[in-house]
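hey so i finally got around to running the thing on that chain from the lab meeting. sorry it took forever, my laptop kept dying and i had to restart like 3 times. anyway pasting the input first so we r on the same page abt which one it is
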Amino acid sequence: MRAAATDRIQPKAARRMALAAQGFADPAPVGRVDVRHFRRVLGRLGLLQLDSVQAVCRSHYLPVYSRLGVYDRMRLDDWLWNSGEMFETWAHEASILPVGLEPLLRWRKQRAAEGRTWSGLHAMGSGQPDYVAAVLAEVERRGAVTAAQLSDPRPRSGDWWDGRSDGKRAVDWLFRIGRVGSRRVGNFERSYEPFDAVVPAGIRAMPTPSIESAQRDLLEIAGRCQGIGTAADLADHFRIRTVEARPRLLELVDEGRLCPVQVEGWHEPAFMHPGVARAGRVDARALLSPFDPVVWHRPRAERLFGFRYRIEIYVPADRRRYGYYVLPFLLGDELVGRVDVKADRAAGVLQARGVFAEDGVDRAHVAVELAVELERLAVFLGLDEVAVGRRGNLMAALRSARR
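ok and heres what got predicted. didnt touch it at all, straight out
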């Protein structure tokens, strides 16, 4: 049954629906975490965003941890890169997602090939076609190879701004247009392979849907994974331009695949997935990655939780408000604080360098729960102890809770 356009949802209900859609109302694993649990989490998230910063750990580990607790990271990596169920592509930035979604993203690769996106890489691809063709032939002949292992990697030439070699730019270009596949090896380095080694023949043989059809399917997935959101929220999940997403969303409403709703206090109309659970209660306790779908679209996080969040990695140290790598703290169905965290692997210490509570929360209660969560995170990371710094309005309460 479709929701009428006049249906109104209270902010708290919208927040709980969003968290339930993201898996925070699912039962905790019993016993060892295995591939079944990983599949469930990826079904909730739709994809895992990849990022090279590892102040705590590689970013793709944290959303899984936030929903499952302590698990074996090597087991997750083996499933992500070697099972044949997942593949890396450009979706919400660099991401890994179910291989069955590959046909829905071909339109994006085609646009890249036409020079409508990634203009710098397109200039490389079109400006040195013989070299790029030779690189492609080498990858197809040799199999897995890093950019540095190319027979002719070519040091940086011309005025390319980022300092990468021509070989690195060539394989990156081939990756973005879908001519080669990628796995992560060693220190999270990309290893490039023939595309058919990463995406099975059965998937590659599937018909290519129209752009409109593919975008509708992606937006429906976004709706299922987010539970509820505005056009901009749902478009951001797979980085579809909002102006393109709006007519597709109306088509999904006409087909009954999304329901139009209005959330009290939101200035934009919203869309709800008809299968979303209306959770009466969410008892979450988790530190979230900056690249977690709950917070990666900052305007949505502010609307849902009243939580203004910016990542300050690229902000000069003397101008940071909270710290270098700050994780929001989810407790119940609210974001109640944030922690500037660093894993000191050499010393075996998880450093909570700054701890901050949001206005209006019970700091003593938050501190007790955060103390437990920091200890659990240290176990997950294989660290021996937690050290609390001296910055933040929650510092004294957290120190007291840990005593």
